[in-house]
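job 3f2a | input accepted
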Amino acid sequence: MAAVAVATRGTAPPSLSRRLHEWGLALAVVGAAIGFFVGYALGSLAIGDGDNSLGSNAGILLGYSLSAVGFLAGMGFFNYPIARLLGRPVPTADDEAYLHGEGGGLARYFRLTTDHKVIGMQYVVAILAFLFVGGLGAMFIRTELLTPTPTTATAESYLTLVGLHSTLMIFMASAAIIGPFGNYFVPIMIGARNMAFPRLEALTFWLLPPAGLILLSTVFLGGFTTGWTGYAPLADQNVLGMDSYLIAFSLIGLSIMLSGLNMIVTVITLRAPGMRFTRLPIFVWGVFLTSFLGLLAAPALLGAIAMETFDRTYLATLFVPAGGGSPYLWENLFWFFGHPEVYIFILPAFGLIMEMLPVFTRRPLWGYRVAIGGLVGVTVLSFMVWQHHLFVSGLAPALRPFYMFSTEAISVPTGLIYLVALGSLWRARTRFSTPMLFIGAFLFNFLIGGFTGVFLSDVPSDFTLHGGYFVQAHFHYTIMGAEVFALMAGLVYYLPKMTGRTMDTRLTRFQFWAVFLSFNGTFLSLLSVGILGMPRRVISYAQYLQPLNVSATVFAYLLGGSMLLFLGILIWNVVIRPVPAKENPWESLGVEWHLPTPTPVYNFDTVPTKWSLPYEYDTGRVAADVGHPAPALGGATP
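job 3f2a | predicted structure (638 res):
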C-alpha cells in the first residue's frame, strides 16, 4: 500500500482536507469567534437568563472553551478524525507531504504542520512575542512603583496588572526551552525522522496562541486579583476576568501534559539503532525527564481548575469554608503542579547549557553520568517539596520538618548538576564566544537564585521572608536569570542551524553585558527591599524604601531596553538584513551540526546506526556516522 501511495504522489487533485488546511489561521480565527458566541449563548441559557452573574459566568467559561475548540477546528485538527469517522479515504501521500511542509514556503508557519522543525520555529516566534507583551507589563509595574503612593493605577487594577504579567510569563516560561529547542532538535539528536505523534506535537503549540489571547482578554472583563497562583476562595469571589485565567491556564496545562507524553514516547520508541540511553545527549536527558514532570504534574492543575470552575458556575463550594470546602485543597493541588513547574523551566535549561559547554571548552562533558543522576534526583524530589509554599498558611505544622528537609535535600542533586558544569570549565581552554558568555551568566544567576532559595526552605526564615520581594527576586533569579539567559544562549548558538543566519557578534556581546548588568542591578535592589520587609503585590510602600525602588526601576528600564536590543538584532540579522552563517560555526561534534543546512524535511535519508557521545573532543569523533567528516578542533569562532 505504501508503494502505491508513493507512486501516485503528484497525480491526484488536492483533497478537501488539504484545501481546508491551506486557509489555516484565517479559518481558525473565524472558528474561534463562532465558538465563543455559541458558547456564551448556551452557557447563559443553561444557568440563567444571561443577566444574572451565574449566567454570565457560565457563558464566559463555555464561550472561551468553545472558542478554543473552534480555533483548533479551523486549524484542521479535526479533519482527519472526522474523515475516518465518516468512512472517507485516508489522506493521500500528497496530502501528508503537504501537511508535513514538504513544499516549503512561509505559509507552512501559519497553518497546521507536522514537521517538528517548523513547530520549533513557531515556538520561537510565539514565545518571543508573548515575552515582549509580558515585559511591557513589567515596565508598567516598575513605573508605578517609582513613588510610594499610587499615581497611574488603582490598587485593584495594579493587582490585575501584576497577575497578568506573572501568569503570562509563567505560560511562556513553561515552553521557553522545550518548545523551540526540544521540538526542533530532540528527534535529530536521537536519530529519528519525526516525533512519535506529529499531530499531537502541532496541537501542543497551537494551544498556546488561544491561551495567551484568552488571558489578555481579562482586561476587558474586570481582570483578576489573585495573582498567578489563583488562590481560592478569593478566586470564587472574583469578577468575570477570573474565567480568562481558568480557561487559559487549563489550555497551557493540557499543552504541557501532551507535550510531555509525546516527548517520552519519542525518546523511548524512536531512538535509532545504537542510540542507547547511555549515549543520549545531555539535552535530550533534560527534556526527557522534564517531560515526566509535565505529564504527572499538569493533571493536578487541570483537576483544580475544573473544581474551581464548578465553584464559580454551579456554587459547588469545593474551596469555600462556609460551604464545607477548604482553600487548603486548592493550595495543595496547585503547588503539587506549581513546584514541579519550576523544574519544568530549569531542567531543560540546564540540559541545554551542558550541551553547549563541551563545544566551547573543547573537552568532554565532565561527569556525564553524574549529571544524569542529578537530573533524575531533581525529577523525583520535585514532587516532595510543594508544601514549603504552605509553611505560613497554618496547615499541618507537624509536616513542616519533612518538607523543610525535602526542600533542602533537592539542593544535593541540583548541586551535582551545577558541579558538572563547573567541572567542565575547570582548567579548560574556554572560548568565550557570545553563547559562552550567556552560559557564564546562567551559572552566576542560578547560584544567587539557589542561595536565596535556601532561606525560603527553612521554616523560621520563610516566616519572615514569605510574601515579600525577597521571594519575587529569588524567583526571577532562578527563572529569568537562568532560563531566559539559557534561551538567549540557545538562540545565538542554534540560529545558524535553524535559519542559516547568524547574529552580529559585536552587537550580541554588547547586548550581553547590558542585559547581565541591568538584570543584576534590578533584582539585587529587589532582594534588598525584600529583606527590608516590602511585601509583594502592593501599590503603596514605606517612604524609606523609595530609593531602592527607584534603583530597581531604572535598572529595569535598562533591562527592558537590552531585551529589545536582542530582539532587534535577531530580526535585523535574520529577516531584514540576513547574515549568512557557516555550516558549523561553532565546530560542534553534535549530529545536528553535521546535517545539511537547512535540515532536510525528514532529517535523515538513512538513519545512522553508529553512535557515540557527542562530547568526545579528545578524539574528534562525530556523534553519529552521517557521512560528513569531523571538523577540525582549532580555529577561530565567530
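job 3f2a | The radius of gyration is 25 Å.
job 3f2a | closed
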